Amino acid sequence: MTLSVLPWLGGAVVAVAAGFLAALLPRRRARADGRKVAWSAARAAIHDATVSRDAAATPVPEAERLLARAELLAAAPGGGADAAREAAAHARRADELWRAGA
């Protein structure tokens, strides 16, 4: 009796493990893709703010501080999507300040 139950038990363990992996792997891949997209947007925002800074006629200390904060977040290793969104927000605000000339 015990020998006939072992294959069923093994099959059940394999089925549960396969189901777990089938649910986990796409979520991990989506999270990694989201992080890549967020950092790409953050780098683009930092670049735009840098261009606006270089084109500005007058210095804007608040915008300089925001851009420095965004660049610091971007330089930190291992930042997640939240850090990327924060860096992008700082860079966009700095860009707005330089464009307004305030």
Overview of this protein structure:
The chain is an all-alpha fold and 102 residues long. The chain has one domain (2-101). The protein has helices at 2-55, 61-75, 81-100. Helix 2 (61-75) packs antiparallel against helix 3 (81-100). The longest helix is centred in the first third of the chain and has 54 residues, at 2-55. The termini are far apart.
The count of DSSP E runs of length 2 or more, i.e. the number of strands, is 0
What is the H-and-E element order? HHH
Radius of gyration: 24 Å
- Could you say how many structural domains there are in total? 1
Give the overall pLDDT as a whole number. Answer: 92
The largest β sheet comes out as: none
Give the helix level as a range of percent.
over 70%
Strand content: under 5%
What structural class do helix, strand and pairing data support?
mainly alpha
Low-confidence stretches: none
Treating each run of at least 4 consecutive H or I residues as one helix, how many helices?
A: 3
Q: Distance between the terminal alpha carbons, to the nearest Å?
A: 83 Å
Outline type? rod-shaped
InterPro entries: DUF6403
Pfam families: DUF6403
Transmembrane segments: 6-26
Keywords: Membrane, Transmembrane, Transmembrane helix
